[in-house]
Amino acid sequence: MGNVTSNVAAKFAFFPPDPPTYEVYREQDGRLVFSGLTADKNVDVHLLDTKAANKVVATFWKHPFARFTLLYSHGNAADLGQMLELFIELRAHLRVNIMSYDYSGYGASTGKPTELNTYYDIEAVYNCLKNDYGVKQEELILYGQSVGSGPTLHLASRLQRLRGVVLHSAILSGIRVLYPVKMTFWFDIFKNIDKIRHVNCPVLVIHGTDDDVVDWSHGKQLWELSKEKYDPLWVKGGGHCNLETYPEYIKHLRKFINEMERLSLTKPAKELTSVPSFRETKHNKCLRFGRR
Question: Is 146 a catalytic residue?
Fold first, then answer.
């Protein structure tokens, strides 16, 4: 069985850009600086310790009138240096703060990219939001793109008062991307099909109908399994890495954010018992899968 596990991991590989597309360094005053980001961009840079003793880079994009913070988990063939333009656009159009991060082994983050490390990574980022910025669960929307849906649903299944979740070109599980299996095997990774059932907030699913990497059926089934379904966005003709280029993408996201704002004024997030935790453009290189 050990060989099976290693073979699956090899097929569902991480692809961090090599070399990384940015650097992080400290100024003489101790302040962390992200190459290519100037002070006028209003971004805080962090180097966070994880349970695995890795240090992950996180960037907090501040909006002066934000009601919510978006915790963004990107696809597995990109790093933060390729996402800057997207974050600038999302912050401006959605009027939200954005916390983004690189997985262990990506960009300037240390360590090795593994499924477990992505869980430790997002937990460290969430703790930073909670402790350094005072972000409450009710003010937080988790956003997972492609393989980023794995850490997103890991955290969402443990935080029971979240404002919302966005799943963008998400996967049911690692093996299901490669093979149309009907059951979940113990050696599978990113078992989103099981975790989505434990998410107790509105879930928006966005998927392209012509996605040839992660079939549209993944998005449809995740939406069907969601407890609190928000109107999905099926982008007609959309692929895996180009959904941001469609005008309906930002329009639908803005509608979702507006609805979450309305809900926050009319009813609080659910009080439930916590589960123990723990544009086809240069900025959007996302998931790649392949049989080897």
Answer: yes
Task: Output the CA torsion sign for 282, 119, 96, 35.
Answer: negative
**Residues with Cβ within 8 Å of residue 154, at least 6 apart in sequence:** 118, 119, 122, 195
Among 154, 240, 252, 283, which one carries the catalytic annotation? 240
pLDDT in tens, 89-145: 999 999 999 999 999 999 999 999 999 999 999 999 999 999 999 999 999 999 999
Two structure tokens written together for 23: 């650097």
Prediction pTM value: 0.90
Sign of the dihedral defined by the CA atoms of residues 48, 110, 167, 191, in that order: negative
**Catalytic one among 73, 146, 173, 226?**
146
Q: Which residues pair with 142 in a beta bridge?
A: 71, 165
Number of residues that make up the chain: 292
Pairing of β 32-34 and β 43-49: unpaired
Half-sphere exposure of 126 (CA within 13 A, CB side): 26
Nearest to 15 by CA among 77, 62, 57: 77
Which listed residue (79, 121, 188, 211) is catalytic?
211
Q: Contact at 8 Å (CB) between 142 and 71?
A: yes
Which residue's entry shows tokens 């690189």? 102
145, burial (CB in 10 Å: exposed 0-12, middle 13-18, buried 19+):
buried
What's the CA gap between 45 and 24, in Å, rounded?
A: 9
